[in-house]
Amino acid sequence: MSRSNHPPHRRRARRSALAVGALAGAFAVTLSTLGMAQASEDPGVLARVDNPYAGADVYVNPEWSARAAAEPGGSAIADEPTGVWMDRIAAIDGVNGGMGLQDHLDEAVAQAGGQPIVFQVVIYNLPGRDCSALASNGELGATEIDRYKTEYIDVIADILREYESDANLRVSAVIEIDSLPNLITNVSPRPTATPECDTMLANGNYVEGVSYALSELGSIGNVYNYIDAGHYGWIGWDDNFGASADLFQQTATHGEATVDDVTGFIVNTANYGPTVEPYYTIDESINGTPVRQSSWVDWNRYVDNQSFAQGFRQELVSTGFNSNIGMLIDTSRNGWGGPDRPSGPGPRTDVNAYVEGSRTDGRIHAGNWCNQAGAGLGERPTAAPASGIDAYVWIKPPGESDGASSEIPNDEGKGFDRMCDPTYQGNPRNNNNPSGALGDAPLSGHWFSAQFQELLANANPPV
């Protein structure tokens, strides 16, 4: 649906009155002292920094922190920063007496104490959300793009604009997890296609919604948009890699969005693929057989998220994104520690034995995503850990479920996905392997104590 069919909202040219005129001199001083990027042509508008995580603290969600601290051993990580999820319209004001977006922003300002701080917010409520799964389905039907814009994005943008003049607040907005990659891998004629994904491709509301979110939030001077880009075990194959980059570029230039609205991309959000596989690489061969040909790798170009993020970044730049875009990697649950973690390369008898003995990824299949048994906390949130990587982040708060392991009636729009059922073995997306999911899991986003304890026990690096 064309943007012109909707009432105009605040556009890029409009800025908070607090960010102009009298504050220009003070902002110039702040730019100098904080090492910020060169100021824009408007002397009253605070320029964005190249990497918002550099030289900044990151917001600790007090609600998650309290739940973590209440767990045995949880106080060791309760002060780690995690993402705040706006996964339905009601979350903006807060649900069940909890904190809303404005409450979190006020707390972030208080935590900053006059120093730079990053507030991580997940924008996650597209029409027909997560067309290839059920556990993370949302409240909006496939055609409710108007509600998405006016009741969700516009309201979030209005709240964020109230904080635009805060020189120390940097808002990292993670945009619509799993949405655009689904339009590449889970549509006809792919064997993994679903009718729901075909519908979202045909009606264009994923592209329309993401581009609208980019343009609205990108018009706010201290908001940094990171588009979700799946992970290497999803779009690392040749037939997905370039097509995904092209779709992201088309989306970022659709409607009133531009590539300038995109700070970067995030990979492995709420997933389990390792950041770096330390004991084998994609370039190796065993007795003349390439690692790519092993059953686990299955001709993928990548074996971990960091190499994928760096390679995909170059592909994105080649399609027209700015050369200074950065990547985020969600490391909240991809540590894979514990007694079964290998301590070195596997046997070189054949390529499958080598890869199986080398890989730290403890999943049964790389397509498994729900409440994975044996997973551990990964690298702690860190700014600029590698070339092209803006930060390791914990966007998925450890201890929050991916989905219920059996059907639970609810008013949150969340369905029952068999990939969250530990007894399930029948999904072509993971070659009909067992799901690898933990049992007795609650609805997605709800606290899952047993998973939290596993993540602590299997943390790598150890807690």
UniProtKB/TrEMBL annotation:
<keyword id="KW-1015">Disulfide bond</keyword>
<dbReference type="InterPro" id="IPR016288">
    <property type="entry name" value="Beta_cellobiohydrolase"/>
</dbReference>
<feature type="compositionally biased region" description="Basic and acidic residues">
    <location>
        <begin position="411"/>
        <end position="420"/>
    </location>
</feature>
<protein>
    <recommendedName>
        <fullName>Glucanase</fullName>
        <ecNumber>3.2.1.-</ecNumber>
    </recommendedName>
</protein>
<comment type="similarity">
    <text>Belongs to the glycosyl hydrolase family 6.</text>
</comment>
<keyword id="KW-0119">Carbohydrate metabolism</keyword>
<keyword id="KW-0326">Glycosidase</keyword>
<feature type="binding site">
    <location>
        <position position="85"/>
    </location>
    <ligand>
        <name>substrate</name>
    </ligand>
</feature>
<keyword id="KW-0136">Cellulose degradation</keyword>
<dbReference type="InterPro" id="IPR036434">
    <property type="entry name" value="Beta_cellobiohydrolase_sf"/>
</dbReference>
<dbReference type="InterPro" id="IPR001524">
    <property type="entry name" value="Glyco_hydro_6_CS"/>
</dbReference>
<keyword id="KW-0732">Signal</keyword>
<dbReference type="InterPro" id="IPR006311">
    <property type="entry name" value="TAT_signal"/>
</dbReference>
<keyword id="KW-0378">Hydrolase</keyword>
<dbReference type="Pfam" id="PF01341">
    <property type="entry name" value="Glyco_hydro_6"/>
</dbReference>
<feature type="binding site">
    <location>
        <position position="396"/>
    </location>
    <ligand>
        <name>substrate</name>
    </ligand>
</feature>
<keyword id="KW-0624">Polysaccharide degradation</keyword>
<feature type="binding site">
    <location>
        <position position="234"/>
    </location>
    <ligand>
        <name>substrate</name>
    </ligand>
</feature>
<dbReference type="GO" id="GO:0004553">
    <property type="term" value="F:hydrolase activity, hydrolyzing O-glycosyl compounds"/>
</dbReference>
<dbReference type="GO" id="GO:0030245">
    <property type="term" value="P:cellulose catabolic process"/>
</dbReference>
<feature type="region of interest" description="Disordered">
    <location>
        <begin position="397"/>
        <end position="444"/>
    </location>
</feature>
<feature type="active site" description="Proton donor">
    <location>
        <position position="178"/>
    </location>
</feature>
<feature type="compositionally biased region" description="Polar residues">
    <location>
        <begin position="424"/>
        <end position="435"/>
    </location>
</feature>
<feature type="binding site">
    <location>
        <position position="400"/>
    </location>
    <ligand>
        <name>substrate</name>
    </ligand>
</feature>
<feature type="binding site">
    <location>
        <position position="271"/>
    </location>
    <ligand>
        <name>substrate</name>
    </ligand>
</feature>
<feature type="active site">
    <location>
        <position position="130"/>
    </location>
</feature>
<feature type="region of interest" description="Disordered">
    <location>
        <begin position="332"/>
        <end position="354"/>
    </location>
</feature>
<feature type="binding site">
    <location>
        <position position="87"/>
    </location>
    <ligand>
        <name>substrate</name>
    </ligand>
</feature>
<feature type="binding site">
    <location>
        <position position="369"/>
    </location>
    <ligand>
        <name>substrate</name>
    </ligand>
</feature>
<feature type="active site" description="Proton acceptor">
    <location>
        <position position="402"/>
    </location>
</feature>
<feature type="signal peptide">
    <location>
        <begin position="1"/>
        <end position="37"/>
    </location>
</feature>
<feature type="binding site">
    <location>
        <position position="231"/>
    </location>
    <ligand>
        <name>substrate</name>
    </ligand>
</feature>
